[in-house]
Write a structure and sequence with these properties.
- The structure is a homotetramer of 197-residue chains.
- Helices cover 73% and strands 0% of the residues of chain A.
- Chain A is an all-alpha fold and 197 residues long.
- The radius of gyration of chain A is 18 Å and the shape is elongated.
- In chain A, helix 4 crosses helix 6 and helix 5 crosses helix 7.
- Chain A folds into 2 domains: 53 residues, Arc Repressor Mutant, subunit A, CATH 1.10.10.60; 122 residues, Tetracycline Repressor, domain 2.
- The interface between A and B is medium-sized, with 32 and 32 residues.
- Chain C binds a DNA duplex (21 and 21 nucleotides) through helix 1 and helix 3.
DNA sequence: GATGAATGAGTCTTCATTCAT
DNA sequence: GATGAATGAAGACTCATTCAT
């Protein structure tokens, strides 16, 4: 993946201009947070995130005043990275396969890193708000879908919300059940078959 | 549904006979536990389960020495009920549609009652062991699949583990995303299409 | 069972019927809380209150779900006790001296036990609500004042709010400065002189 | 008021000369500290003092190595200002009214600015030492008292410690109860009446 | 000197679990 | 067996204080 975690050289203009060490810590906290929450679920302790990031607990709370803020930031980060991937596929790849490629990649990552859908699922309920980034990602996937339809790789009557539903479902399934590569391939083959004309 | 919640007259032979009120309490705890954990997730407090069951907290722990035991019992209960449903479909229904019927019913319930997959997903990770009942359910579903294949309703090369993977995935997806009936129908249509010859 | 359900034969009607040991603990927590907060101020730790009461921290929070609740209960308790005293004086004592007697007693206790005014002052700001009990106490003192005026012991134009202001002020002063008995006597003598015709 | 806030040109001889900006910062910290602690009580955070002073937290701790030091400095400052006021009244004003004038002014300020007595009361307990400045102020007030006695405005048997006790008490009372001007006038009228022959 | 990020002990609060009643 | 009070280990969060930049 090309994007940097800390967004160091292109931080958004209104950001408070963090010191180099602070930026480094922020990035490490996000990273360890993603790992810890993916492994242990959203109820893992902030202390463990701090420990894995190699900082004191206070540092985590300085960067993210609330556990919810931390969770939200991790998810946002993840969503942005996914959106970047989708956009790259949309501009480079073959429209007939780009959607399936992204779909497969996302499910594989969910199974391997146990990150994406768990966070999306486990915590949405807790009032976490990431509406903006989610919509951006969805629109990007919509572009892939349109391309695939035009290329005749996907049925004309398939709508975006079904695709998103299938994507979310398979990510969560792969995640919680730990699909091995072969099972993943066979399961997705069925879904992809269902999408084709 | 025919199964009893408390399993009163078929408890394992060596278990000491429960007093009538104890049996009643056990059943009510399982029931309220299913409701509470489905609504609030597995991190809901045991106290709340007790309150909704109308018993004191001590009573819950007398029946289930550990929260994990309670969760396990609830899941087991659920699995047994599902197995009964599958078996009923297998012996009565049309083999060509039975699998799809069960699939659709389970996803609908997940979406409506937020029970099945949430428990299965959220807590499997915590070391809960329900291997036996799960296998029983899986075998029952296997029967449905075989019937469907023989009836020509499902492709010959589709294996049970893919079907289970798709079932789990869509249940979780429906659950966490709250699919409305129309979205559920369209999403499952794609999956079913993928399963057909 | 022959014993009564709550075991308490004279608790106030709407009270939740505490067990004997719980009632004992509740009382001890209120007592140690009054002492600790008076000594160390309202920012003393709940842990210390628990320790002095000889219970675990959880017990304090079972009885008073919030630190604020604890503070409020202590103050209410105090106010009720004071109101009782005032009422006793109003019905028994000499109207010409009852007000002065109560005034002096309250200031002496403030100086000795460092309780009354500190709590009243330190915590009122934190959103603690004891409006009811406070008003009850004030009305009781009002009765004393009326009696004293009728007896010619206090000037006709002295109103209740001034008396309360002087009472609060001297309590706080005695409390924070630790007036010794002699200083207290001389200081109150001046105030009482100011109140007389 | 004549005293400078920063005490720049009269700092103790051995203290290293502060840079102009450092002197300015010290003054602003004292000022914002007085405001913040008066508003929020002594448990307000040092961070807030820094923010209101427009400096970083490190700067506060460079000037006052400990929160206690900061509190102590604020109180000292306050006491010195009060002493100046008393001295001015002692040398200029009418001895018969000077004491009452000062008394009334101090109580009014307490009620309005919530500063004086709060700090004096709330923090004395925490081991803050300002014995020297306090004694200086007390002696200055003693001069006012002597003048008032000689002028026949105050009873011969009234001693300084009672006057100070009444002053402290009414300041605290006015402060915590927020006496309005009318109540303040009536309450002080009673106290003054008690002091007169 | 100023800055503000990092530290970590301390505080409030929750909750699974135990046990006296 | 049922009750619900007590326990105490965690967990989220705060804040005085230190120190690298």
């Amino acid at each position: 993946m090309l994007s940097t975690v800390d967004g160091s050289f292109m931080s958004s203009p209104e950001a408070p201009a963090l010191r180099a060490d602070a930026r480094r810590n922020r990035a490490r906290i996000l990273e360890s947070g993603a790992a810890v929450f993916a492994e242990r679920g959203a109820s893992a302790s902030t202390e463990e995130v701090a420990a894995r990031a190699g900082v004191a607990i206070g540092t985590v709370f300085r960067h993210f005043p609330t556990k919810k803020d931390l969770l939200q930031a991790i998810i946002k980060d993840l969503l942005e990275r996914l959106t970047d991937e989708v956009n790259a596929l949309a501009s480079e790849g073959d429209p007939a396969t780009a959607l399936f490629t992204f779909f497969g990649r996302m499910v594989r990552e969910a199974a391997e890193k146990k990150t994406v859908a768990d966070l999306l699922a486990a915590d949405m309920g807790a009032g976490i708000q990431v509406a903006g980034p989610v919509q951006t990602l969805q629109e990007a996937i919509g572009t892939l879908l349109t391309g695939a339809r035009h290329a005749g790789a996907v049925r004309e009557d398939v709508r975006l919300d079904e695709v998103l539903a299938l994507l979310t479902a398979t990510c969560q399934g792969a995640l919680s059940a730990g699909w091995d590569p072969d099972l993943r391939r066979r399961t997705l083959a069925i879904v992809f078959d269902g999408l084709r004309p």
